[in-house]
Specification:
By secondary structure, this protein is an alpha/beta fold. The protein has a 7-stranded mixed beta sheet. Helix 10 crosses helix 14 (255-270) and helix 19 (348-366) runs antiparallel to helix 20.
Length: 846
């Protein structure tokens, strides 16, 4: 645009030879730097201080050219003294000076009031530059024009943006720029801002209005005070100042101002492109507002509004050290609150998840009651209704811990101690349960015949259905508690699934238990191998040939072969009447005994099996799917010293870490012995006894110690049988909802509240979509927020709590408003109506 105006000077004045441009603000030079081409006959020259050379070129080299001569940071020589010092004065007098005198036409073009004349006259050159015109395009008319609008355009340009920024983004970007390593960009911004008096005054006034402080051009960190005030008030705005608060000079009490400050902070911390830089810049600029000092003043239980990472660490450390084991219910609640106040992708969420799961573990252990029960049925019921949750919580805690130790954190030592305490607590309670269980079995159990459970060796006879196409999945070492989490996943699918506990044979070893799940007439131990109907079935092909004898067309396949199969071969496979799929993710990972691999394998198995079952029904049209396991396992994420391993001197035909086979029935301390043929369907060529440790002890033998099976603990013996049907009854009931608390207050134009999903999504209860909004009478004054309540977690309430934030979008003078929550399918009848106290008077000037 400036180039066009330059052309117009020459077009209007054909005798014009040189157009002098005195660019005191540096704006025109910046504009012309982007000009790549000039019309024929034009020369553009930025004066370099060489007076003689320039004069010679004008009179000789460029005598037939139209010369555009720009003096950077120069002014017209008005005074006599200035003219005497200007060697090209004669040429200046004979030619013309470029002037930004278009303010009158600009005001006429947009029909602007007279009160803007002085502002426009001062800034017309910059306003008319192409960059500012592009930024203001679509924003300028007689109704919308303001000095604030134009100054925001100037500052947006100085920040390097090509669009008009609001003050929230401008302040966030000023903070980021002030802490950036890009020295040239930062210096250029502050230089350009300081030269535009209107823009710098507008920015200064805005910062003073919001923070009571502004930028300091004389400081190396010019936005330091602003960042400090922002950080302090974001953390402590809900707290009354106490005398010992050394930062209280920054305290802001206006709810309208706090609303605007909160918007700045939320934009900076949640914008996908800016958040990382903003958080880092705030850490640098506001480092003198020390979180540990705030905690020393207000304590770890204070109602902080926002949490920085540095604020979280001392709070989390004290909670872990002093409250985790002593008051896990309170810790669980605190972790939920803290998690909701931090960004979902913050790596502190991993630590919070570890602490939350640890608290849940301790809560479940506390709720167990006595472990000394009357009979084996009660022990089985205790496990499948209560204790499996202890196993699950321990596994999930380890899952979080293994993730958190891959990240740096300042309370690592505290977390390590907490994890070791949890390992010891779990080992103790699991051992106690199984001591009592096996003592009861020995005294009253009649070789496990009174447990009330179906037996593993009868699985095929019980579960096969000759009337339908059927797939049976055998997942090696799919412990009951892992299967229960899988059931939560399946609850979201369209198929109907149920779970039942079965009793595994002894020894709970793959080579015996897995083959007992095939159809058979006899199981026999030949040496240390298991024979099915007199044959050792070591390969998939051998198992297929065996299965075909019982169900013509039946086939055995590996999970990997199914998932890697092409579409045609897979469809053909599942046209067969019976398919056994062998899945080995968990047991295979156990071979390394790596704690990372075993725990992650359980999660991987849940993912794999949920997808497999869904595909069997939806893609491969299998009506009837049954999933079971050969055995469970014991798992402890701790080192087993030699003193912790039980030494056996009995002669043994086979010995592993959780059992041994012997022909001796003599008493051995710490060992309970059963006739093998009484605790399994395995026939022996000679009488054999199986010895298993009482409790969860490991034997000194070959095999794994952390991950172990073969014994008679509840975790090893109780196996899941999941039946999934393609056809289901339609769910008619949706999950219920309620508010976490009913004392709702609109603070700083914002209402934050928590919704509770009353029950987990299950095979009988479906998810619910709700819409939340605040009303003044029947007039909505916030945006509508839609939420899907679809958690399947029946054990951890924290996973069924949802935080909702609603922001006022209108100026509201009413002191009482109403929150309404509707089912998305019924907008006439609110599920919840709750009064909201309005503590905010909105200022719509941001």
């Amino acid at each position: 645009m400036i180039q066009d105006r330059i052309y117009s000077y020459f077009e209007r004045n054909p005798q014009l030879h040189v157009l002098f441009i005195f660019d005191k603000m540096g704006i025109i030079q910046t504009e012309l730097e982007d000009v790549k081409d000039w019309s024929d006959g034009y020369v553009y020259k930025v004066f370099d201080g060489a007076w003689f050379n320039t004069k010679y070129a004008i009179e000789n080299t460029w005598k037939d050219k139209r010369v555009v001569l720009l003096f950077p940071v120069g002014t017209y020589p008005h005074s006599e003294e200035q003219q005497l010092q200007f060697p090209l004065l004669d040429m200046l007098k004979a030619n013309m000076e470029y002037k930004e005198d278009d303010y009158a036409s600009y005001m006429q073009q947009y029909n602007l009031p007279e009160r803007f004349r002085g502002f426009i006259k001062k800034n017309i050159a910059e306003i008319m530059s192409s960059k500012i015109q592009n930024i203001l395009n679509g924003h300028i008319n007689s109704a919308t024009f303001s000095e604030d609008l134009v100054c925001r355009a100037f500052i947006s340009n100085y920040l390097g943006d090509k669009k008009l920024l609001d003050w929230e983004t401008i302040i966030v970007k000023m903070i980021i720029l002030d802490a950036t390593w890009e020295e040239k960009k930062r210096t250029d911004f502050w230089h350009r801002l300081s030269r535009n008096l209107d823009a710098s005054k507008t920015a200064n006034d805005k910062l003073i209005k919001l923070f009571g402080v502004s930028y300091n051009l004389n400081a190396s960190q010019k936005m330091k005070s602003v960042a400090e005030c922002l950080k302090y008030n974001c953390i402590t705005q809900l707290l009354d100042v106490v005398p010992g608060d050394s930062y209280k000079q920054y305290k802001i009490s206006s709810s309208a101002v706090l609303d605007q400050i909160n918007k700045i902070y939320e934009w900076g911390t949640h914008d996908r492109l800016l958040s990382e830089k903003f958080i880092q810049s705030m850490r640098i600029l506001a480092s003198d507002i020390k979180e540990e000092e705030i905690i020393n003043i207000y304590g770890i239980d204070a109602n902080y509004f926002y949490y920085t990472e540095a604020l979280c660490w001392p709070i989390l450390q004290e909670i872990v050290e002093k409250k985790l084991m002593a008051d896990p219910e309170d810790v669980n609640d605190r972790m939920r609150e803290l998690s909701l106040k931090l960004p979902a992708d913050s790596h502190i969420q991993i630590i919070i998840r570890f602490i939350e799961q640890s608290a849940l573990f301790y809560m479940q252990v506390r709720g167990l009651g006595t472990l000394k029960l009357n009979n084996t049925k009660e022990y089985v019921n205790k496990y499948i209704t209560e204790f499996y949750l202890v196993d699950m919580s321990y596994r999930k805690t380890l899952e979080a811990y293994h993730e958190l130790i891959t990240k740096e954190n300042p309370i690592e030592l505290v977390l390590n101690v907490a994890k070791r305490q949890l390992d010891q607590e779990y080992a103790k309670v699991a051992n106690l349960l199984n001591l009592e269980w096996l003592t009861c079995v020995e005294e009253k159990g009649a070789w496990f015949t009174e447990t009330g459970l179906k037996h593993q060796e009868d699985f095929y006879a019980n579960e096969s259905d000759l009337n339908v196409k059927q797939v049976i999945i055998i997942s090696d070492a799919l412990r009951y508690e892992v299967a229960m989490e899988l059931m939560q996943r399946l609850a979201k699918e369209k198929n109907m699934a149920s779970i039942e506990a079965y009793q595994a044979m002894l020894p709970t070893e793959t080579k015996c238990c897995k083959l007992s799940l095939l159809p058979h007439h006899s199981l026999e131990l030949i040496g240390t191998d298991m024979a099915v109907d007199g044959a050792v079935l070591a390969t998939t092909e051998q198992r297929t040939a065996h299965l075909d004898k019982y169900r013509e067309g039946g086939v055995c396949v590996r999970y990997e072969d199914v998932m890697n199969g092409d579409q045609i071969s897979t469809r053909e496979l599942f046209k067969r009447p019976l398919v056994y799929i062998f899945h080995d993710t968990i047991d295979e990972a156990s071979h390394s005994q790596s704690p990372f691999e075993v725990i992650s394998a359980c999660r991987k198995a849940i993912d794999q099996l949920s997808v497999l079952i869904k595909r069997l029904h939806a893609t491969w049209n299998v009506t009837n799917v049954v999933l079971t396991a050969d055995h469970g396992f014991l798992y402890n994420d701790m080192k087993f010293e030699d003193k912790d391993k039980h030494n056996i001197t009995d002669a043994s035909a086979e010995k592993k870490t959780r059992y041994y086979l012997t022909d001796s029935d003599e008493y051995v301390e710490g060992i309970i012995k059963f006739p093998l043929e009484r605790v399994s369907a395995i026939k022996c060529q000679m009488p054999l006894w199986i010895g298993v440790p009482v409790g969860t002890n490991r034997l000194a033998a070959s095999g794994g110690y952390n991950f172990a099976h073969g014994g008679a603990s509840l975790q090893e013996m109780i196996i899941p049988v999941i039946r999934s049907q393609q056809k289901r009854t339609n769910k008619t009931e949706k999950v219920g909802i309620s508010l976490m608390n009913h004392n709702l207050n609109m603070v700083s134009s914002r209402l934050k509240f928590q919704l509770i999903q009353s029950e987990a999504v299950s095979m009988t209860v479906m998810e619910r979509k709700v819409v939340c909004c605040i009303y003044n009478g029947d007039d909505p004054v916030t945006q509508e927020k839609e939420l899907t309540l679809n958690s399947t977690d029946a054990t951890n309430l924290n996973n069924r709590v949802y935080e909702v934030t609603l922001n006022l979008q209108k100026s509201v003078s009413a002191s009482m408003l109403q929150l309404r929550i509707y089912d998305a399918d019924d907008r006439l009848n609110p599920l919840i109506r709750e009064t909201v106290k309005n503590n905010t008077m909105i200022e719509q000037d941001f």
